[in-house]
Amino acid sequence: MNLNMYSSSVPVFTQMLASLQDILQKAQAHAEAKKIDDQVFLQARIAPDMFHFIRQIQVATDFATSISARLAGVAVPESQYEETSFAELQERLTQTLSFIKSLNEAQFTGSETREIVLRPGTPKEKKLSGHAYLLHYGLPQFFFHVTTAYAILRHHGVELGKRDYMGQY
């Protein structure tokens, strides 16, 4: 069975990034209603050695962007880590969605066999087929950070459920 690389990536990223947008809105509304400083949520983490909430969103968007770009055979856009507010995270999500939606299915043709090189020229260099890159590296990384962002907010009292996590599908 052939895997449609576009259908297995872009719509999945789109669904989950849109759910993060909705989750961010709920977190911000919760902070306002409870009169909690936004930074309590934005800097929150589940464990001391984990990335904080902002960084979880940044990394999730980086994975959605870089996976889509590499599979489509286009340059990976540079990413900055300057967000400090809910509004800036919303803008980052909007920009990420705009980028991945700008890619078309034809660009993904043959990407299942395209060689993807991670950390080129370093001792950690790893070469994967596009298929292995998406299914065994990219999607698990992406979902880890989306799930962790959700879990941080849920752990800190934001009323979220599975429907919030799943978004529209």
Structural key phrases:
169 residues; Four Helix Bundle (Hemerythrin (Met), subunit A); two-stranded antiparallel ribbon
Give an overview in words.
With 169 residues, this protein is mostly helical. 57% of the residues lie in helices and 5% in strands. Helix 1 packs antiparallel against helix 4 (86-101) and helix 3 (53-72) packs antiparallel against helix 5. It starts with 9 loop residues before the first helix and ends with a helix. The mean pLDDT is 96.
Write out the strand line-up for the largest beta sheet, numbering strands in chain order: 1-2
Catalogue the unreliable spans: none
Reported CATH architecture: Up-down Bundle
Number of domains: 1
Counting DSSP H or I runs of 4 or more residues, the number of helices is 6
- Order of SSEs, N→C? HHHHEEHH
Round the mean pLDDT to the nearest integer and report it. Answer: 96
How large is the share of residues in beta strands? under 5%
Q: How far apart, in Å, are the first and last alpha carbons?
A: 23 Å
The value of Rg in angstroms is: 17 Å
Helix content: 55-70%
Q: What's the CATH class, please?
A: Mainly Alpha
Let me know the largest β-sheet: 2 strands, antiparallel
Q: Characterize the quaternary organization of these chains.
A: single chain
Structural class: mainly alpha
CATH superfamily: dinb family like domain
Number of strands: 2
According to CATH, the fold-level topology is: Four Helix Bundle (Hemerythrin (Met), subunit A)
